[in-house]
Amino acid sequence: MGLAAYLADRVVPVFVGALALAFVALVMSVYGVEGAVVAFVCGVLALAALLALVLDWLHRRSFYRQLVDTIDALGDRGFLSTELVERPRFLEGELFFDALDRESKAMRDHVSAARRERREYREYVETWVHEIKTPIAAAHLVARNNPSPEMDAVDAELDAIEGYVEQALYYSRGTSLDRDFQIREVVLADVVRDALRHKARTLIGARVAPVLGELDAVVHADPKWLSFVLGQVLVNAAKYRREDGEQGHVRIWAERRETGLDSWVTLLALADDGIGVPAADVGRVFDKGFTGENGRRFARSTGMGLYLVRELCEKMGVSVWMESEEGAGATVFLSFPDMVERA
What we know:
By secondary structure, the protein is an alpha+beta fold. It has helices at residues 3-9, 11-30, 35-74, 91-145, 149-173, 188-198, 200-205, 223-239, 279-282, 292-298, 305-316, and strands at residues 184-187, 208-212, 218-221, 248-260, 263-272, 319-324, 330-337. Helix 2 packs antiparallel against helix 3 (35-74) and helix 6 (188-198) crosses helix 8 (223-239).
């Protein structure tokens, strides 16, 4: 709140005060008071009034500036500002502070209720996912104990259902870092093999064979989340396989790269030789719900797989991006930063 704005807000009392001062000067002149005395008295009164206005402005400005700075610092949690700002000692400020505090409390209660509902919903989804795994496993068992082309097709569809259920589970878990989330040292070869084991039927059904390169690197990640991330990339490699019917491949390798002075990352790459991604879609493939030209063309994309890949990677501190050439396949890169300085 600037001084000019403050004075403009008090133009009426200032104008009335000026009229009163002029009236006092007139009365003193009528009663024969000398002009020098009249000027001195009026000057003292005007100076006192101006000093009072400036002091009042400084007092108010201090409160409002502190309030604005606090709200700016809190960002989208500005409703907590009344918890950090002292209650002012002037009537207008007290009324404003009390009103803001009531609204702040209402917002805090609303946020708490929303968090509680989200937590309860997440717990329900996780419980449902774990419960649904039992009938899916039973259906798998029935299909595999009764081999036939029809049962093989049913078993393949059960794999797809299991994949979507897994997406729901990790989408739910991804909203909270305190649930099933542990960053530790993992060997990439172990996690890659785990992801390949889970997606083996999908890759075999799509005639896509993995080709493993050097994978002995050790990185910091959550092994379950990383296995899920790799599984989503493998599913895409199977889904958007070659159209000529020939055997497809997905090459997986890791390498060390220097990113700056004594700064290194471990790069994990998964490269398929499928239909690739159009150049216009490459920058958006990780957006939530984005299906792109390939998704519309094949009519079986939810746009959630790569979105979850990006979200989980961000929470693990891993960078992820895609490079692709339409008709020549796509490569997904995961960059794991070193957690400690290398000797």
